TrEMBL record:
GO terms for molecular function: oxidoreductase activity, acting on the CH-OH group of donors, NAD or NADP as acceptor. This is Aldo-keto reductase. Residues 17-124 form the DUF659 domain. PANTHER family: ALDO/KETO REDUCTASE. Coiled coil: none annotated. CDD domains: AKR_AKR2E1-5. Gene3D superfamilies: NADP-dependent oxidoreductase domain.
Amino acid sequence: MRLELDEELNACNYLHLQYDGWSNLRNEGIINSLISKPQPAYIKSLNTETNAHTSEYLSQGIEKVMIVYGVNKFLVLIGDNARNIQKAFGLIKVKYPHVVPLGFCAHCLNLLFRDCLKNASVQVPIVKLNDGREMPALALGTWLGLNSKGRVEPTSNEVEQAVRWALDAGYTHIDTAWIYKIEDQVGRALKGVPREKIFVTSKLWNAFHARDAVVPALRESLRSLQLDYVDLYLIHWPIGQFANSSYDITDYLETWKGMIEAKKLGLTKSIGLSNFNQKMIERILENGLEKPAALQVELNLNLQQPDLVAYCKSQNIAVMAYTPFGSLFYSKAAPDAPPPRIDDPMLVKIAEKYNKTVPQVALRYLVELGTVPLPKSLTKNRIEQNIDIFDFQLTDEEKSLLKSFDKGYRIYPQYKWQDHPYYPFEKKEIK
């Protein structure tokens, strides 16, 4: 990266960067991110003196130019007019001859931003769990999804690469599961990462609901992950099902007791549920068993589940949101899926206001609902975009619009299991 940047710097002998829309640039948060970085003493002095002599600069026809960041002897200026920035460089060179006033082309400046913001550029908030533990408020999802043939199987090391990109972008929470068949890839990607710096969630599959099957199942996941423990272990579904697809009607209370035992053994720091409904959670509590630390369910614009979210909030149970994009993408939306789509004019307008994408707005909305989104992607730039949602806030009017898209539409109702005694969702009428 540094060699690439140096080559760009050496290739530039004058500045020809122009930015259309000074106010928009300020809203991006780039400036605040950069000036908060440690800077050489002369840069701090230069910033102070520049701010103190704004009128002097304006009198010489230099407007809307800001000193952003110094790298070694290089100085980055951003402005709305290339000529004005060149004048500013000239003035600075006279007063500070040790500063190299090389110009930056737009591509070079982008490289510099990427380099400066590469490590932990996005600070993800923390959610306090009811057991005293802390969980990052966003995670990379690692499920590969479904296709016409069923569950998508990994083809190479695509998940391993995605996790590496996520770590570089600042993610500290990875969500996975035994049934995804990629825990080994997650484990390889995490090699070398200090254990205390990463939060790993995994899940118990339906075939291991017997109380005495929970701990062995978790140990198998840990071997694949190459970890001594996970931070959060969830019962994936309340539905038990043997490997031959016949139903296991083990009471999920027994499964939960197995989860409690796994926690006591130190194999997981926290335990929780996935795809359980409110009555099922209430039954666990009524039986005097440990309260779940978290509940993971499908949540997106079309399925906001306000009653369930409110109940969990009242019980101090963290809510994690899978399938957070819902049916936004045309390629993923079923024919009967309600709007919106990614090009919805109202959503595009909100996104443009904050210099974000529509998916980023959808993720931000889930955060403001008090939930932990689990966006999944195998594309580097989308992985980076998905975590970049903590530098803006939606207005009440915007949240009201986003709330109006809730139609109770479930993408994964799993009707194939609806005759199981512990099916958690609304059943489909058989005509």
